[in-house]
């Protein structure tokens, strides 16, 4: 049963940039050299997340390293978004393998990125930990919903990883010019404020997803009369 659900789940992608992103990825996948496979792109995405985390850490003493974060996020977006498209364009899908490896790497990559932020001085370690916990909880719910409901939702509340990378890159550039903001007359780290807002957003998305999937599964499996 598990194998059937993983290999035949429906992908639902309803983010704001989904249509444009899909066309761009197919265009790139069709022109990528045959020697570059989906596994290479997956590993590139993971290496880029490690690079982003290290760049954040280095930025604690050398702020110009923040540009390295922006570049690493762009490389991660290229590898992480393109690997599955390459497999589909070349008819080389391995649904169970791809699903497992892709999401394990997402979890490891989040640890690299948020670990670097926690060490950077631009974000309080407690806020970085809260973001990691929120990401892991959302990820767990998404993976459970894929198995139970047969639908893999790539985006939540019209936002997907591509838009999150763009927001993070813009925020990272802002750190070069204004790493602190004043809220209610008190100065706070820019990324602490953004992190708390993101944690609240993830909590809202998690609550919405749990309520929706619980309702759908309850209706799909009524109690026997």
Describe this structure in words.
- With 225 residues, the protein is mainly alpha-helical.
- It has a single domain (2-220), classed as CDP-alcohol phosphotransferase transmembrane (TM) domain (Four Helix Bundle (Hemerythrin (Met), subunit A)).
- The protein has 8 helices and 4 strands.
- It has helices at 2-8, 18-31, 38-59, 66-89, 95-120, 125-149, 161-175, 190-220; strands spanning 10-12, 151-153, 180-183, 186-189.
- A two-stranded parallel sheet has the order 1-2. A two-stranded antiparallel ribbon has the order 3-4.
Describe how the helices and strands are arranged:
Elements: H1 2-8, E1 10-12, H2 18-31, H3 38-59, H4 66-89, H5 95-120, H6 125-149, E2 151-153, H7 161-175, E3 180-183, E4 186-189, H8 190-220
Parallel strand pairs: 1-2
Antiparallel strand pairs: 3-4
Helix pairs in contact: 2-4, 3-4, 3-5, 4-7, 5-6, 6-8
CATH class bucket: Mainly Alpha
Instruction: Briefly note the structural class of the backbone.
Output: mainly alpha
Question: What is the CATH-assigned architecture?
Answer: Up-down Bundle
Compute the average pLDDT. Answer: 90
Strand content: 5-15%
- Can you write the helix and strand succession as a string? HEHHHHHEHEEH
* Termini Cα gap: 26 Å
Q: Please tally the β strands and state the result.
A: 4
Query: Which outline best applies?
Result: globular
Q: Determine Rg (CA atoms, Å).
A: 19 Å
The residue ranges in which pLDDT falls below 50 over 5 or more consecutive positions are 1-7
Helix content, binned percent: over 70%
Number of domains: 1
Q: What characterizes the major β-sheet?
A: 2 strands, parallel
